[in-house]
Structure formats: structure tokens, C-alpha cells
Amino acid sequence: MSTNSSAEVFRNAADYLRPGLFQGRQVLVTGGTSGIGAAIVEAFLALGADVMATGVANSEIELARKLPALARGQFAKLDVRDGGAVSALVSSLPRLDHVINCAGVIRRGEELEPEVFADVVDINLSGSMRVCAAARPRLAEHGGTIVNTASMLSFLGGGLVPGYSASKGGVAQLTKSLAIAYAKDRIRVNAIAPGWIATPLTQALRDDPVRNQQIVDRTAMRRWGGPSEIAGGALYLSSPLSGFVTGTILVIDGGYLVT
């Protein structure tokens, strides 16, 4: 079996980050209308990709359309609980090279109720699986990539968010399992695991002086992360620089887990 030498891989490393890195590539980003998902859409667009971003509500899609950095993107309404809708969207794309699963929900406190727990797991975990399964044949055509979104709570418990924690632990194991199952199709499957990131979803925590300080004090880098810093991980796991990487959970948390 032939392998690329280090020289071959890194000689043109700068080219891997050139504006046209993903030129001609089709990317699907679920949950791509705000926060981390929107930052990932912006990053792929900046590097030349054609991006289809999904949101669960028309209102959030319209807000995303108005963002100058996302102007070149395409948007569609999608509920990842609807397997038929997922399959139809994937089939409608002219081609598919990269999938980023960012669609997710967290319902603090409410997840202790079994019905809410089940819904959170259905969106975060089963929804990711529906997208992966629908995308597999399309990705196999060109040897594509999947990046799922795990979390610090893939590794830690969350007393107020048992559904979110369980679903994100499941996403980590799903990622490893699909990496094995999809390897024969030349599809690499990895995940990013964000730490505490400054997004609308975490605004309430940042506005709480006590909770904010607790988070900053435990994070080795002593700050919140930005969505673009998570986007960098998604780009890496979708690029040729990670050509021998699959089944990996890339933690991007400023050192929160190691303190």
C-alpha cells in the first residue's frame, strides 16, 4: 500500500489553507444558521465551498440570510427528526463531499422528564445518524467526510441535562462506530467536541457572574472560546491534512477537560 511521504503532505501545507481549498466541493451543515454552525458555514464559504445550511425554523433561516458572511450560502428548513425530509434534502444536492452535523438542542432542567429526554436524544443523536445514513451513498461517490458535534458532556455528566449528556456521549460512540463501518466507502467520520463557546446558547451563563467565573476559572486558557475556533477544527477534519484521521473526537475546549 502506498502512502504519502511527510514531504509530500507538508511541502504545500500553505496551499491546504488557500482560499480555494474547498472549491467545487459541496458541504451540508445541519444547524448552520447560528452559533457554531454558522461559523462553520462561513469558514467553508471563505474557502470556496458550496454550502447548504439547514435550520429548523424559517425565522432563523431569514436571519442567517442577512449575514454578509453567509450571503453566498444556500439555506433550507430541516427537522432532523424527519427521516424522509433528511433523505429528500440529501438527494436534492448536486453532489456531496462533506457533512457537518451541528443540529442540536439543550433543555436545561426539563430533560429530567422522560418525554423531553427522548426528544433531545432524537434530535441530537438519532438526528445525526439519520443524516449520516442518508449521506453515505453520496459521500461514497467521492470519498467524503463527516464531522459530528460531540461535547465536553460526551465525557462529563450534567445534572440538569441528562438528555443532552446522553446524546453527546452517544454521538462520540456513533462517530467511532461509523468510522469503522464507512471506511470501506472511503468516508472518514470524526467529531468535534466544543468547550464553553460564546454563542447565543450560552449567553445566560455568561451573564451570570458566578457561573461565568466558575467556567473561566476551570478553563486552562482562562477565557471562553469563539465559534470560529471550533470552525477551524471542522475544516481540519474535512481537509487533506487529516487524511489518515478517522474515528477521532477532537476536543476544542481551551483545556477545560484537563484541569
What's the number of domains?
1
CATH architecture: 3-Layer(aba) Sandwich
Catalogue the unreliable spans. 5-14
Instruction: Report the order of strands and helices.
Output: HEHEHEHEHEHEHHHE
Spatial order of strands in the largest sheet: 3-2-1-4-5-6-7
Mass-distribution shape: globular
Estimated share of beta-strand residues: 5-15%
* Category by helix and strand content: alpha/beta
Treating each run of at least 4 consecutive H or I residues as one helix, how many helices? 9
The main sheet comes to: 7 strands, parallel
CATH classification, class level:
Alpha Beta
Average of per-residue pLDDT values? 93
DSSP strand tally: 7
First-residue to last-residue Cα separation: 41 Å
In CATH, the topology is named: Rossmann fold
Provide the CATH superfamily. Answer: NAD(P)-binding Rossmann-like Domain
User: What would you report as the Rg, rounded to the nearest angstrom?
Assistant: 18 Å
- Secondary structure: helix percent: 40-55%
Structure explained in plain terms:
With 259 residues, the protein is of the alpha/beta class. It has a single domain, classed as Rossmann fold (3-Layer(aba) Sandwich). The protein is built from nine helices and seven strands. Strands 3-2-1-4-5-6-7 form a seven-stranded parallel β-sheet, with helices on both faces. Helix 2 links the parallel strand 1 and strand 2 (50-55). The longest helix is centred in the middle third of the chain and has 27 residues, at 114-140. It is globular and about 50 Å long.
